[in-house]
Each structure stands twice: as structure tokens, then as C-alpha cells.
Design a protein that fits this description.
Length: about 375
């Protein structure tokens, strides 16, 4: 399945402390209706060429709801117009801060098949909110009001919670607060990723992230039937205990030919982070098809990375099948090249050995790893 991350706008009504988009010197504006129409033409073109393929379209930003409900109604019209034969293989999701969500979005989201909205939240004051001071009181009031609208209309919602230095002071309180919101789509605890010196006060180490997870994991394990969709715990259980493959894009080792990030002006790159950093740029959808973008030669280096790592830095690691060296963008942020494993591998190892295995009583036994041929060297 191909994943399109569509940043139809980089405008945002919040000033989240750890957000890379709001710190960009130049933003890409808002997607025109002409470009929106071309987006659906490109999707149809790709799906007709690959009749077994599907496309997941993730509306992202910035804050995508700033575009208004009519923008998404127009998107649905373009889909009906240009994807008559293929729209059954197109699914939509959205990531929003929800602070400008209204009843007007309900019907159009249902038309697009969106029944669960991804959002993010932080109970810590002045981490998220509008203005220079990050007015978290106003943010929280609007957020909770929108949640009421979602629940009244039977739509689900889930939270990404960003673990920062401030989270380390009271991990159990954070867990109880978020789970008491009675959200219907789960919680994903992600580490904050800071790449500049201006926000180092909230940065955490991989070891601190692992121990934050370790502090709340016994709570979740005891009540896991009540809170089944808490990540990354659910994924660890599926991979280690149930022997299922359940990995995020950054852990899968196969993100190289499945993802496209599309900026408001139509520029295509690998993902949101690569777009923010000017890496892995694949041209513009006005000039290139999705097939051409997904087979851009730049992507080959990500495939080569997997072969290099399993024959070098990750050769003896029993956790290879859980992370495949981690996200290539994390490796680049540390080493300014993709071919290394990431420092966040240490978080996975520490969490499993120090917390997961002792609490569950289950020792991770990796499946045999197939050998990977060494990549050919350029002459």
C-alpha cells in the first residue's frame, strides 16, 4: 500500500514548543484547488496502473482543518470525478490538533470514510497553544469542546503524546490523565525529537524514554484489556508474544518505496521530516507521476542501508527484527548520513530487557534472520 502524506497547508493556529513546522523560516503556503484536483488525477493514474495496490491518504499540516470543510468537500468531488474506478482503493485519515473542529466537518469526513481522527495533546501548561506564550488554557478548552462534538457524533479519536523532559517527572500521572479521557482510538507515546539548541530543555535521551515507558508499562500490563490500544506497548506484545509483525514505518526497514510527502505547492519528498529538512526530494507532482516518484533512484540508498546494517552495526543484535536499525531520518539527524543505526535503538533494547521481559515474564526470542547480500560498491 502506498502512503501519501498530504500537507495541504503549513499554516497552523498553534505554536507547539517541539514542532519543526512552526520553526521553519519559510513555509509552503496552502494547496490550490488546481493542485488538489491534480492530486486525485495522479492517484487514479497510479491505481489504474497497479490494480492490486491501495493508497492511504493522510491529511496533515500545519493544521489541516484551517482549510475549512469546503476544501475537503471539494476533495471528495475530485475523487468522485477522477477516481470513479479506483476510489474503493483510496482511504483517508487525518491528523489535527482539533482546536478548530466544528459540526460542519462531520458529514464531509463521513463521505471521505474518516471515522477516527488522530490528534495530539499535552496536559503540561504552555507546551501547546496559540501565541508566543502558548495559551494552553484556550487550547485545552477548544480541544475538549471538539472532543465532545466527535463523541456526540460517534467519531473515534486517538492521541499522540510527545514524551519530553517534563514528562519524566510524573509518568504515572500522565498515563492516568490520558487514559481517563476515555479516548476511543488509543494513545501513542512518542519521544520528543529535538534537533536544535533552542529547545534542548525539553529533549530526552533514548534511555530516559525507555525508562518513562518502563514506569507506565506495569500499569498498562495490569489493565491491558481495558486499554488495549496503547503504543508502543501493543506493538511490542504483538511482535514478541503473539509473533505478529507490527512495526511503524521507521522500524519496518521497508519504507523506501511506499511513502510520499506532498507539500502545499506539490513538491514531493519522502516524508514530513525529510521535507522539513530538505532531504530526499523527488520533484513536483505537476511534472512527475506517483510511479516515477516511488521509483526515484534516491530511494535505493534506503534499501542499501538495510543490507549494510545487518552486515555491520546490527549484525549481532537480537532486536534486529523489531527495528531494522530505526528510522533513516533519525540516523541522518545524528550522523548526517543514512547508513548508520539510530540512537533510539538503545531505547528499544533497554525497554525490552529492563522492563518488558521482567514484567511479562516473556523473553524475546527472535526468529531466524535471512542473510542479506552485501550491497555492490560503486567503482
Amino acid at each position: 500500500m502506498a502512503t501519501l502524506i498530504v500537507k495541504a497547508t503549513e499554516a497552523c493556529n498553534s505554536n507547539c514548543y517541539y514542532c519543526d513546522v512552526v520553526t521553519k523560516e519559510q513555509r509552503g503556503g496552502t494547496m490550490s484547488l488546481e493542485l488538489l484536483e491534480l492530486l486525485f488525477k495522479r492517484m487514479n493514474e497510479y491505481l489504474l496502473h497497479y490494480p492490486e495496490e491501495r493508497i492511504e491518504l493522510i491529511w496533515h499540516g500545519g493544521e489541516p482543518l484551517l482549510l475549512g470543510h469546503e476544501f475537503y468537500r471539494q476533495a471528495k468531488l475530485f475523487q468522485r470525478l477522477h477516481c470513479a474506478e479506483t476510489e474503493g482503493r483510496i482511504s483517508h485519515t487525518i491528523q489535527s490538533n482539533l482546536t478548530c473542529f466544528t459540526e460542519k466537518f462531520i458529514s464531509v469526513f463521513r463521505d471521505l470514510g474518516i471515522d477516527c481522527i488522530g490528534t495530539s495533546y499535552d496536559p503540561e501548561p504552555h507546551m501547546r497553544g496559540p501565541g508566543k506564550e502558548r495559551d494552553s488554557e484556550t487550547y485545552n478548552r477548544k480541544f475538549l469542546s471538539s472532543i465532545s462534538i466527535l463523541e456526540k457524533n460517534g467519531l473515534h479519536w486517538g492521541i499522540i503524546y510527545v514524551v519530553t523532559k517534563r514528562s519524566l517527572e510524573r509518568p504515572e500521572d500522565v498515563f492516568h490523565f490520558l487514559t481517563n479521557l476515555k479516548l476511543s482510538g488509543g494513545v501513542n507515546f512518542n519521544p520528543v525529537l529535538i534537533y536544535d539548541d533552542l529547545r534542548k530543555d525539553v529533549a530526552i535521551t533514548p534511555e530516559e524514554y525507555a525508562d518513562f515507558l518502563g514506569a507506565i508499562f506495569p500499569l498498562w500490563w495490569k489493565h491491558r484489556t481495558r486499554y488495549p490500544d496503547i503504543q508502543p506497548f501493543k506493538s511490542f506484545v504483538e511482535n514478541i508474544i503473539e509473533h505478529k509483525t507490527s512495526l511503524s514505518c521507521g522500524e519496518s526497514g521497508n519504507c523506501s518505496h511506499h511513502h510520499i510527502n506532498i507539500a502545499p505547492n506539490g513538491d514531493a519528498s519522502h516524508c514530513g521530516r525529510s521535507a522539513d529538512w530538505g532531504l530526499l526530494q523527488y520533484g513536483n507532482i505537476t511534472e512527475r507521476t506517483f510511479d516515477e516518484i516511488l521509483h526515484d533512484p534516491q530511494r535505493d540508498q534506503l534499501d542499501e542501508r538495510v543490507s549494510l546494517l545487518i552486515n555491520s552495526e546490527c549484525r549481532a543484535c537480537r532486536f534486529w527484527e523489531l527495528c531494522h536499525g530505526g528510522c533513516p531520518l533519525d540516523a541522518w539527524s545524528k550522523h548526517k548520513e543514512f547508513i548508520h543505526k539510530t540512537e533510539w535503538c538503545n531505547a528499544r533494547i533497554r525497554f525490552v530487557e529492563k522492563h518488558f521481559e521482567p514484567v511479562t515474564g516473556v523473553k524475546y526470542e527472535p526468529q531466524p534472520v535471512p542473510s542479506h547480500p552485501e550491497p555492490a560498491c560503486e567503482k
